[in-house]
Amino acid sequence: MNANQIQRILGSILISIASLSIVSNSSEAQPSLVQCQPPQPDEYILLVLSQTWDNHQTLQRSLSQQLQANLCQYLDDTVTRVAGFKNLENAKNWARYIRELSGLSAFVVRSPSPEEMPSNNSAYNPQPLGKGYAVLVDYFNQPELASQIRQILRENVGLVAYGQRHYLLAMHTTSQKAANSTLRQLSDRGFWTMVVDSRRVILLTRAVNF
User: Fold this and answer.
1) Residues 111-122: what's their mean pLDDT?
2) By C-alpha distance, which of 70, 92, 99, 74 is closest to 82?
3) Where are the alpha helices (DSSP H) in the chain?
4) How does pLDDT run across 34-67, given as a tens digit for each residue?
5) Where is the signal peptide (predicted)?
6) Is-contact 130 198, C-beta < 8 A?
């Protein structure tokens, strides 16, 4: 066997190994994610901040077979959407169970009601929020969360529009430190919270009454 034959054989082996590596990597890749679907009328769902495919699979193994769980994209987060709840109490119990079992954040989401906020607030006056930092809370069509946040912060809670969606406004400040502190305070209580550039936020009302 001459040198050219040996070189051709080695080249074939390397190509085969590379092909196997590509197949192996593709089989382990996470599926492409779609946007999470909203709940059906009279349905409650859970959104669990799973972030990774491994967390999703671990969570899925701990769920009842009657529940449907799939990985999807919510805003900028990778979450597990758990469907199959017909009453709020059952959904809340499962959210509590998931938090205690896995340590992952879990939130109950329901379909919008006809009384979707805001509807009867005379202070409704859309305007840019202005310079600084805004601490926003996703209320998942549950406006009563505003009352809970108001009790925690002992401040009025507003309503804003950001990225074509409505959020509760927990704080508007020029201090990044204060904004991050409030973010941690609310996140630790289980609220889906974010800090954003307030110049991109439209203030709808400074105080909601729920």
Assistant:
1) 53
2) 70
3) 3-28, 53-61, 88-102, 145-153, 176-188
4) 888 888 888 888 999 888 889 899 888 888 888 8
5) 1-29
6) yes
Do the domain assignments include residue 27?
Answer: no
Assessment of whether the complete model's pTM goes beyond 0.85: no
> 158: domain CATH number?
3.30.70
170 and 132 in a single domain? The answer is yes
pLDDT tens by residue, 117-158 = 454 444 456 889 999 999 999 988 788 899 999 999 999 999
**How are beta strands 165-173 and 158-162 bridged, if at all?**
antiparallel
What is the span of the domain harbouring residue 85?
44-110
Looking at the structure, do residues 157 and 102 belong to the same domain, yes or no?
Answer: no
Same domain, 95 and 131: no
pLDDT at 125: 61
pLDDT at residue 26 greater than cutoff 70: no
Q: Respond yes or no on whether the N-terminal peptide bond of residue 31 is cis (omega within 30° of 0).
A: no
Are residues 139 and 201 both part of a single domain?
yes
Segment holding 136, helix H or strand E: strand 133-138
Q: Which amino acid is at 47?
A: L
Asked if 76 and 142 sit in the same domain, the reply is no
Structural domains counted in the chain: 2
